[in-house]
Each structure stands twice: as C-alpha cells, then as structure tokens.
Amino acid sequence: MKTVAIVGGTHGNEFSGIYLLRKWQQSSASIIRDSFATETVFANPKAYQENKRYLDSDMNRQFSHTDLTDPLLTNYEQSRAKVLNAQLGPKGDARTDFIIDLHNTTSNMGPSLILLQSDAFNRKLAAYVVSKMPDAVIVLEDQISVAEHYFLSSIAPQGVIVEVGPQPQSVIRQDILEWMEEMTGHILDYIDLYNRDELPVLPSSFEAYKYHETLKLPENEQGERIGMVHRNVQDADFKPLHNGDPIFTLFDGSIICWEGEYEAYPHFINEAAYYDNNLAMSLAKKVVVEV
Amino acid sequence: MKTVAIVGGTHGNEFSGIYLLRKWQQSSASIIRDSFATETVFANPKAYQENKRYLDSDMNRQFSHTDLTDPLLTNYEQSRAKVLNAQLGPKGDARTDFIIDLHNTTSNMGPSLILLQSDAFNRKLAAYVVSKMPDAVIVLEDQISVAEHYFLSSIAPQGVIVEVGPQPQSVIRQDILEWMEEMTGHILDYIDLYNRDELPVLPSSFEAYKYHETLKLPENEQGERIGMVHRNVQDADFKPLHNGDPIFTLFDGSIICWEGEYEAYPHFINEAAYYDNNLAMSLAKKVVVEV
C-alpha cells in the first residue's frame, strides 16, 4: 500500500469528514505515516456550499464501471464522479491503493466501519480497529464484489466507509467528530503496520453485521408514506429484531410487526437521506468472522 | 377565542407538524372542540417539496409589520408571508384569535412551549400544559411585544410556538410526533375550557426559561467557523451553565469557557438551521412565573 486517499464531503451535509479535512489541511501530522503517501479529497464541495446531500443525484451511487464509462451520464455528480475516478482511479487499475470515505448518518450507528469485501487484509483491518476501539461496529457489505459496488471507495482495490452517527444533517457534534477521527487514525496505523510487517497479535475472530436486505417504509398504493419506524426500533441500531416484534407505526395508530425467519439486526434506522427512496432501514445478520 | 389556526410546515424540513396536519386532514376529531373553530394551514408546502427549510429566506422571520407591508419584499417566503397574513390576519386586526405554530429542532429541547408574551391568558395556558404534561418546558420570548415579533404566530393577538426535539431535519420520529400531538391537544383543551369558563384549579406558579441572549459559534476574522459546541454542552438544553464552564471546542483542540455573570440555561444548542448565521445556542434565565 503506497497511496491512501481520505475522502470527505461525498455527501455535502455530512459535516464530520468535511471539518476533519479542513483540520488536516491545516495540520497534517495526524494523518501522515512513513510507509505510504496520504492525500485528502473533498468529493462534493458544491453540495456542501448549497448545504445539501447532493445537487442532482447521490454521489455515492455513481461508481459502477458501467456508469463511469457512460458518456450520457452528465449531471453534476455523474460528472464529478468521472473526475474523481480519473484522479484516484481509474477503477480496476487505480493509482490509489486504499480509500477511506468519511460519512455521517442520522441513525444511531455509533462508529461503524463498513467493509466492501472480507478478504484477509480487511479481516485483519477490522480485527485491529475493534481491538483498539471497542465501540467500533463492523458492517460487511460484501454481498457483491468491489468491482460491482457503486460506492466511491470502490474506485480503489481496497476501500472502506467510515460511517458515524447519530448526527443530524448539517450539524457538527464533537463526540461524532472524535469517533471519526479516532477510527481513521486506527485505519492509517493498521496500513502502516501492515506495510512494515509489524502487525501486533490480533484477535482470532470478531463479530460483524452482514448486510441482508433493505426494508421500505409503509406506503399506500400511490406510493405515499403512511407510517413511520416504531418507537421501539428508533435508535436501536444493531439490536436484534425477531419475528413478531413491532417495527412500524402507521399514522392511523395501527402497528406493523416484522415477519422474518431470522434474527435481524437493523441499522441505518430512519436515516434522513433514505426518505428519498422511502427506505426505513437495512437489516443484517450477525456473523463471527475468523481473522 | 372563536378561531384557532394550527400551522405546520413553516419550515419545510421539520416533519412532525407536516405529518400531523396530514393526519388531522384525514381525521379531524382530535383537534375539534365545541367552543371554537379549528383550521389547519400548511405554511410552506413548496419548501417541503424541495425538502428544505426554505427556498429564499426563513419564513418564520417575515411577519414584522414593516416587512408585511413592504411591497419591495417579493421573494418566495416574503410573498407567502403576505398571503398567510391576508388569510389568518391581518396582523393587528386578525380574524384568527390564536395560532399554534408547530416546529421541530435538532436540539435536545424536548416538548417546549414558546410564549411570545406572558399575559394572564398565556400564564394560565402554560400552567395548564405543565400540569398535564410534566415533561413540557416553558420558554418565554416576551422580551419584545407580540406586535414587534417577526414570527408567524405573531399574526394573531395570541400565538405560541410548539417546538419539539431532538429530531434531525427531514426525519419523522414517533416519540417527537407524539409529544407534539399531545402538547397541541392540551393547548386546544385549555382554550376550550377557558372559553367555557371551566378551567380547573391550576398550579399557582411554574418554572420557565426567559430568553436572554444568543451566542455565536467561534469564528476567525474571515467569519469562518473555527470551533464547535463543547461535548459537555451538546444535548444539555436547559441544564445550567456557569462562569468558567467549557462551552466551545476549537478545531485546534483548545477549549473556550463561558464568561458570564449569571446562571444561564442554554437551549437551541447546535440547532442545524442556525448554522446559516453561525449561531451556537440561545441562553435563558430561569424564572418562576406566578399564575
């Protein structure tokens, strides 16, 4: 690993990464390691200026091979994605070895590390982060390959999403900022130790939450929302949900229970940005990952 | 009191009031009282459609006499304010007797009732609400007269703001929705009991938080934010702040302490919408109000 990019502001109203970039640009000591070069990238400054997640379309959905090479996709984020791909990639043959993409969520997810694949390098990374930061939560979105992912961090052969909440859009909370800064530091430390072949003894396994499915908010036939996340589930990210547990409250007062055949771990619960698509939450299965 | 208006969506990304309006339009039983007429008003539907607080300027700052009668103020919210003033007012000679304006905040303010004046009617109202809803917080913004206020609820001779949080912008939380619905119901009950001269025995006094001043976030000479609310103060709305207590953390790590000569009660702490003006929080003094 010779080149690491730390990306902030992929979503313009997720402020922790944007403020950390500003801090590191003024004083880069905390992100510099001897064994590799670190660069910082402000992915969507125009959305930040307008205090929005995005102008035309979600930046963090633009990085599939197909879309990056489609000349007909020309809106602001689609264009900006092509520029970032040229700067950090190109995807599939990237000059950047590792991307850390910094995100906030309005959900109560704490300091979460989202892995796009669960190869040996990433398993050791997660074990290292968990050993240094017991509050850290590991989320696996390895249901498809990195090449198939459309996230910004999929430009590089290795990339992660640091996802920290709860933080309202367009707010900066000290606790959330510090979690993000700490997790980023551990990731950089890990890459440095890996490069120098000086990794400490790591835990032999760790718990993680493997993405399984996404639930929509209750809708009527016209596609209008007719309910909300049940108060028992609100803020209960990574707490188990069982068949028959209340999951939604309709505005008419009735309650919808979850009907599922497995022990589900909701996360991204009631994330503000997912209302665009009427999404209520993601569900994961808890797994034990051998390192 | 013959006419009461319940206003939601004055800010387009404060969802509780907007969803309650929708609920009441489908089933109005819970807001109807025998002794007065209730109407509902969606103040800024266009901002809601765009999922923003406002399009051109903050709607809830447009209702001063001067601005309402200024023909040069023609942007969207300024125009919409004139329409609402014609519909509910006109201010100073309004056909509406009482306005309940429904708001959310990202701050941890719980169910707050903001009074624009502390006359006998409002003191009894607050005492009634507190007696029915012990979690309710009473905030006095009576430092100027209703006529001088620029809030939407100042159109009517009597008006209040129901301000409930914490809720991220563009999110609907069940707990926050239920607090807002409950407080609105108590206000309607109070007006009905008042009209019928059937008020119960009320507490002889109550505690309230009287607005005193607004603090800005730390800025450099270029007006850029250089710090954030200190973690001790985050979420500590209506908790006392004393001279020497940490209040801001600068991004360089240094800490700013509050220098003030009184016991201050911060609220609207780190409210997302106030970043537009680099505001950090409001400070109140705790007072005991005789009913």
Automatic annotation (TrEMBL), chains A, B:
Q: Give a yes or no for keyword Cell wall biogenesis/degradation in this entry.
A: no
Give the source's domain of life in one word: Bacteria
Q: Offer one Pfam family short name for this entry.
A: AstE_AspA_cat
Q: What is this protein called?
A: Aspartoacylase
Q: Where along the chain is Zn(2+) bound? A: 11, 14, 103
Active site: which residues?
163 (proton donor/acceptor)
Cofactor(s) of this protein: Zn(2+)
Among PANTHER family, the record links this protein to: ASPARTOACYLASE, SUCCINYLGLUTAMATE DESUCCINYLASE
Give GO MF terms, alphabetically.
hydrolase activity, acting on carbon-nitrogen (but not peptide) bonds, in linear amides; hydrolase activity, acting on ester bonds; metal ion binding
Domain (AstE/AspA barrel-sandwich hybrid): residue spans on this chain: 205-286
Q: How is the cofactor bound?
A: Binds 1 zinc ion per subunit.
The cross-references to InterPro entries, in alphabetical order and at most eight, read:
AspA/AstE_fam, Aspartoacylase, AstE_AspA_cat, Aste_AspA_hybrid_dom
What protein family is recorded? Belongs to the AspA/AstE family. Aspartoacylase subfamily.
Instruction: Establish whether keyword ATP-binding is in the entry.
Output: no
